[in-house]
Amino acid sequence: MIEFLDVYRQHFGEWVPELLVACIGTLQLMALSFMLAAIIGLAIALMRVSRSRLLQAIAVVYVEVMRGMPALVILFLIYFGLGGLGIEWLKFTSYQAAVLGLGLQGGAVLGEVFRSGIEALHSGQMEAALSLGMAPATAMRWIILPQAGRIVLPPVANYAIGLLKDTAICAIIAAPELMLRAKDIASSSFRPMHLFVLAAILYFIMSYPLSIMARRLEARLARDR
Amino acid sequence: MPAAAPNFWVVFWAKLPYFLSVLLGAAGTTIKVMLGALAVALTLGLIVALLKLARLVPLRWIANVYIEVMRGTPALTQLFIIYFGLSDLGIDIPPVPAAIIGLGMNGAAYVAEIYRAGILAIHEGQVEAALSLGMTPINAMRFIILPQAIRLMLPPLCNYAVSLLKDTSLASVVAAPEIMFFARQLVTETLLSMDIYLVVAVLYLCMSIPMSRLVAYLERARRAWQ
């Protein structure tokens, strides 16, 4: 055990800065795919609650297909599949493919979250606001969105935690992030256990604040009800 | 390259039987890894849940740390530690058992929370009522608590099984011969990456969509019952 820890002491200055830089790649990847997922998710949720049967059906199929596949398959389809077709504009870098793949799948997850948030609000809320003389946009802004936003916050935070961990699989298509860097250093230094444990610690440091936040949000929401 | 479009599907249909024969064979390993990991998660999860509900504070602590660590780190990192990390320390676990242990240990943290929520959701008045009616504690557990707790836990457990099925694709990186592993081999062999990953996507959908339909049905049943 002492011997094991001693290796860390020897290589600390060489490994940790490199991995910290890679963490920035991970967080960036997470932020970009989160934004993409939020945009797609909002569109999917609005399609689900729309009156058009066609839009509803498209949204349902999208959600089922995206959630039914492993994220790894989506990444491979985009990176190797589209990239292998020989069409110039379908060739993505591994980083672009990672953002696109995680964002497309996240859109399905967030779409369901947003939809449940909108549907959780009683329709009487909107009617009451309108009958008090509020304009529909004002009612949406002051009555519906604040309530729906609070309802969806905990699941959105949970999704963000899952997303952070999912960025690790982007290492498999060689997108520059933490896991890839850890793998590279592990194979050049022949110390896989040390590097992967270090990577796990770094992931934990990034995800734990998020999970505390998610729990607080959940507790507050439960209390307010 | 407009001419590529018809060409693509000609090649796709011609090669489809070959791809299917390879990938369907690999689906057996996918299911094996999934069922193995499910068994590990259900058993280990029960232990963790009981630890978390224990009266002794250190036991609760162990359960908490286990759950936080397993849920706070990517499953891929855990697999790498178990397969590459342990082998570095002289403990060699073959790919399939490594994948089963890794995914199972990861899942145990989620399953433990499901068990705990299910047990806590049953009001203690239920036990007291059953006991005061003259039921033995075992009978109360058997006829009052468990039937209700299982109904509560079944939908989230099935939900977990669906995500586990998708997570088995990670086993390919530790060289467990499941669908993704053979898909990557087929790609190196034929270079038809789009065709192969499309087949892979459809295969996963064929397995996961019926499962998620079942979850939706169980959810509805639970809500109707509550």
Oligomer: heterodimer
Described by the principal axes of the CA atoms, the overall outline of chain A is flat
What are the low-pLDDT stretches of chain B, counting only 5+ consecutive residues below 50? Answer: none
- What structural class should be given to the helix and strand makeup of chain B? mainly alpha
How many distinct helices of chain A?
A: 8
Overall geometric form of chain B: flat
Low-confidence stretches of chain A: none
Helix percent of chain A reads over 70%
Helix content of chain B: over 70%
Annotated CATH topology of chain A: MetI-like fold
**Helix count, DSSP H or I runs of 4 or more residues of chain B:** 8
Give the overall average pLDDT of chain A: 90
Question: Into how many domains do the coordinates of chain A divide?
Answer: 1
Structural commentary:
The complex is a heterodimer of chains A (225) and B (226). By secondary structure, chain A is mainly alpha-helical. Chain A has a single domain, classed as Orthogonal Bundle (MetI-like fold), CATH 1.10.3720. Helix content of chain A is 84%, strand content 0%. The relative contact order of chain A is 0.14. Chain B is mainly alpha-helical. Chain B has a single domain (8-225), classed as MetI-like (MetI-like fold). Chain B has eight helices and no strands. Chain B has helices at residues 4-52, 57-72, 75-88, 95-121, 124-132, 137-167, 179-190, 193-225. In chain B, α1 runs antiparallel to α2 and α3 (75-88) packs across α4 (95-121). The longest helix of chain B is centred in the first third of the chain and has 49 residues, at 4-52. The model of chain B has no long low-confidence stretch (mean pLDDT 90). The A-B interface holds A 64-65, 67-74, 76-77, 80-87, 161, 165-169, 171-172, 179, 182-183, 186, 190-193, 196-197, 199-200, 203-204, 207-208, 211 and B 1, 4, 8, 68-69, 71-78, 80-81, 84-89, 166-170, 172-173, 180, 183, 187, 191-194, 197-198, 200-201, 204-205, 208-209, 212.
